[in-house]
Amino acid sequence: MVQTEHSIVAQVQAAKIDPEAADAFIRQYMGFIRSETVKFIHTAPENGREDELSIAMLAFYEALLAYEKSRGAFLPYAARAIKNRLIDYYRVEKRHGNVISLHAPLGAETDSGELLETIPDTVDHAEAYETRTASQREIQEFSEKLAQFGLTFSEVADNCPRQERTFTACRRVLEFARPRPELLKRVEDTGKLPISELAAGTGVERKTLERHRKYLVAILLAFTNGYEIIRGHLCQIVPAKGGDGK
């Protein structure tokens, strides 16, 4: 079954907050990951080339976590991430000469284990669990807040500005609203965007505010209750190099 880009984005968004969904998504696209690995190494990723496939899988997972719709279609974005990480891997390999595979056996015996097994696990799993739990809790709370006003994450993502000058306009709206708690409180209480006030205070055209109303409501709501993690996802707004933002 051929998937549309919209359905892929929906899967990516679900995978960001659900480890089981992430695992299922990676399994679903193992053929794609393997194909991108083959394109780079020009051979099947077996018989001593398993490290490259592992690196490609990690790059795919990192792309999943970092992806935003403003970055274009997901699969080309993931393909670039895989290629870039494999390039980095080969640069390190070239710099250090003969790199020993992490899957190399420890001894002559077939059941002696692999070198990978001897490397100490330095990951603080308790801290990682707490971070993931906090993220899931915050995302759930924010999702419920959006639902109060008939909004979903998917709708907000679809309403995200795609042009640099529009991102700049949205930044102006955010910078105008943040020091005005009474304005943020009105948005929180009603779920409505005070378009006239924002247009007068920022110089952004009403039609721009109306076109991206859902996105702007979500951003302003994110600044009402300390949604630190949510802000990181919604507020990746870069200043434009020129453009009037209208």
TrEMBL record:
Gene3D superfamilies: 1.10.1740.10. A motif (Polymerase core binding) lies at residues 51-64. Keywords: Cytoplasm, DNA-binding, Sigma factor, Stress response, Transcription, Transcription regulation. Negatively regulated by the anti-sigma-I factor RsgI. Its main location: cytoplasm. It is found in: Cytoplasm. GO terms for biological process: DNA-templated transcription initiation. Residues 195-214 bind DNA. Residues 26-95 form the RNA polymerase sigma-70 region domain. Sigma factors are initiation factors that promote the attachment of RNA polymerase to specific initiation sites and are then released. Belongs to the sigma-70 factor family. SigI subfamily. This is RNA polymerase sigma factor SigI. It comes from Candidatus Anaerotruncus excrementipullorum. The gene is sigI.
